[in-house]
């Protein structure tokens, strides 16, 4: 299992449950190297945690063929790739519907276009940045309502 997993899954790792445990399978994100400053490391950790919550909350479909993941990994290792390269990504991350033409489901975007959106009619995504912002606003709103009603503060779902 470990040999198969480590050959293609460079950005994530599946962690099987320990024996005699009820915690289930887990996924570990491995998106990047350590950054220059503690602030940058903290920012990436916060972004990744929020992104996982948005993926679960909005039920986003981020699946792409492993061959395109491999191409993205090769491109991502180049100098200034975040600014200069384009990466394969789904045209519509909010739908589970399969297209008859699977090639039309994916296209190349810059990281800026993936995060902030692309002004083009063939790109059906809400910008991920907008989804993150809406999710945080909803958390703040839910906590405010809980506090105003007089209930004890509790963790958000």
Automatic annotation (TrEMBL):
GO cellular component: glutamate-cysteine ligase complex
Enzyme nomenclature, EC number: 6.3.2.2
GO BP term, example: glutathione biosynthetic process
Organism: Solenopsis invicta
Highest taxon above the source species: Eukaryota
Transmembrane segments: none
Record-given protein name: Glutamate--cysteine ligase
Family: Belongs to the glutamate--cysteine ligase type 3 family.
Principal EC category: ligase
PANTHER family, per database record: GLUTAMATE CYSTEINE LIGASE, GLUTAMATE--CYSTEINE LIGASE CATALYTIC SUBUNIT
UniProt keyword terms in alphabetical order: ATP-binding, Glutathione biosynthesis, Ligase, Nucleotide-binding
Metabolic or biological pathway: Sulfur metabolism; glutathione biosynthesis; glutathione from L-cysteine and L-glutamate: step 1/2
Catalytic reactions on record: L-cysteine + L-glutamate + ATP = gamma-L-glutamyl-L-cysteine + ADP + phosphate + H(+)
Entry keyword annotation includes Nucleotide-binding: yes
């Amino acid at each position: 299992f470990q040999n198969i997993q480590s050959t293609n899954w460079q950005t994530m790792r599946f962690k099987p449950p320990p024996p005699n445990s009820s915690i289930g399978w887990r996924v570990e994100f491995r998106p990047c190297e350590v950054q220059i400053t503690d602030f940058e490391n903290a920012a990436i950790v916060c972004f990744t945690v929020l992104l996982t919550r948005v993926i679960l909350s909005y039920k986003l479909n981020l699946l792409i063929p492993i061959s395109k993941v491999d191409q993205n990994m090769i491109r991502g290792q180049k100098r200034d790739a975040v600014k200069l390269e384009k990466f394969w990504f789904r045209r519509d991350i909010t739908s589970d519907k399969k297209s008859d033409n699977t090639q039309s489901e994916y296209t190349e975007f810059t990281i800026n276009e993936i995060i902030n959106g692309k002004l083009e009619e063939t790109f059906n995504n809400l910008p991920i940045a907008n989804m993150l912002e809406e999710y945080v606003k909803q958390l703040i709103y839910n906590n405010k309502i809980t506090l105003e009603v007089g209930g004890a503060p509790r963790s958000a779902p």
